[in-house]
Recover the amino acids of this structure.
């Protein structure tokens, strides 16, 4: 199966949250979602839509200062990481990185994870286009490719 990329045009914040919610409906245990985009692109907005849809939690603060926020009220726990302020990939162990295999890992600034970032993941890149955003979904691994088929 060849790599497939899905591009979503999101004219506003609501559409960006809805894109996150659509991904939430595809989640399975062990999923890793790597969120790429510059500051202010909407990674946390996308995350809010995903977490609200999956766990029913509406209060989703940015984990910029805590580095990780756990949401444990959906079918599986979601660990929402913001690695912007991470000093070294080795700090991930202290944040509970190894516990995420039983749930979902949602990662802002995934490049900071270094070798800890698994090859089997969904890369979500959010680009600023005026008031709107372009969201590119790039699956790595057959599981994500199958789930995104017809998305």
């Amino acid at each position: 199966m060849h790599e497939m990329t899905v591009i979503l045009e999101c004219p506003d914040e609501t559409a960006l949250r809805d894109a996150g919610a659509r991904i939430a409906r595809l989640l399975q245990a062990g999923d890793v979602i790597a969120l790429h985009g510059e500051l202010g692109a909407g990674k946390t907005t996308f995350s809010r839509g995903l977490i609200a849809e999956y766990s029913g939690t509406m209060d989703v603060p940015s984990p910029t200062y805590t580095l990780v926020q756990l949401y444990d009220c959906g079918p599986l726990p979601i660990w929402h990481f913001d690695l912007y302020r991470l000093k070294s990939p080795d700090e991930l162990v202290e944040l509970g990185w190894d516990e995420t295999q039983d749930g979902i890992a949602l990662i802002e600034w995934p490049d900071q994870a270094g070798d800890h970032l698994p090859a089997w993941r969904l890369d979500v890149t959010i680009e600023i286009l005026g008031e709107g955003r372009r969201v590119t979904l790039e699956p790595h691994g057959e599981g994500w490719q199958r789930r995104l088929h017809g998305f």
About this structure: The CA atoms of residues 30 and 101 lie 4 Å apart. The first helix runs from residue 13 to 24. The first strand starts at residue 6 and ends at 10. The chain has a mean pLDDT of 89.
